[in-house]
């Protein structure tokens, strides 16, 4: 797969002069960014991740954007599992991972529509599904954002991602 096909939405640093009220907040994950093509996982650079079939069997056959994650502070463990060559993959290691999905690039429409589609189409509470939609919360203002950030940081998280309401999926950095 070419890197053109795996161009993903990238974040920019938020500026305090932008009012975050009604923006969507989610935890910034410390995992491996992974683009699901509908049949395989790829890095942002277009490199194939050699993932066992059981890890991807419940995913829809459309592109998804997300992160393979194994928990806060476990980036090195996660990357050591995901970046193995095909002949070195240990399938049971993938039972420690989750694909946290934060967008459906090919769905089109506004962010809220894409999130509704994901919630309706990604199996929740399914033992055979190693994927989940990342949790989002509507920001009530700067104080809410700062409180959420403090909670994430206290739990060992990396930060907060903000999505503008009504935003489209763009293959570039977004504000």
Automatic annotation (TrEMBL):
Q: Which residues form a coiled coil?
A: none
Care to name a GO molecular-function term for this sequence? ATP binding
Q: Which UniProt keywords apply?
A: DNA damage, DNA repair, DNA replication, Ligase
A biological process term (GO) from this entry: DNA replication
SUPFAM superfamilies according to UniProt = DNA ligase/mRNA capping enzyme, catalytic domain
Positions of the ATP-dependent DNA ligase family profile domain: 17-174
**Top-level taxon of origin:** Eukaryota
Q: Which InterPro entries does the annotation name?
A: DNA_ligase_ATP-dep_cent, NAD_dep_DNA_ligaseB
Q: What is this protein called?
A: ATP-dependent DNA ligase family profile domain-containing protein
């Amino acid at each position: 797969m070419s890197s053109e096909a795996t161009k993903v939405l990238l974040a920019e640093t938020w500026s305090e002069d932008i009012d975050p009220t009604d923006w969507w907040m989610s935890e910034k994950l410390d995992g491996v960014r992974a683009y699901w093509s509908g049949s395989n996982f790829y890095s942002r650079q277009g490199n194939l991740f050699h993932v066992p079939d059981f890890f991807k069997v419940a995913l829809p056959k459309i592109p998804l954007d997300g992160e393979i994650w194994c928990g806060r502070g476990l980036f090195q463990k996660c990357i050591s599992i995901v970046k193995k060559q095909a002949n070195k993959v240990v399938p049971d290691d993938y039972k420690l991972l989750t694909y946290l999905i934060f967008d459906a690039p090919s769905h089109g429409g506004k962010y809220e529509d894409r999130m509704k589609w994901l919630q309706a189409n990604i199996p929740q509470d399914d033992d055979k599904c190693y994927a989940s939609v990342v949790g989002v919360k509507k920001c009530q203002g700067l104080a809410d954002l700062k409180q959420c950030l403090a909670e994430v940081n206290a739990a060992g998280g990396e930060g907060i991602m903000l999505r503008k309401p009504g935003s489209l999926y763009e293959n570039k950095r977004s504000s």
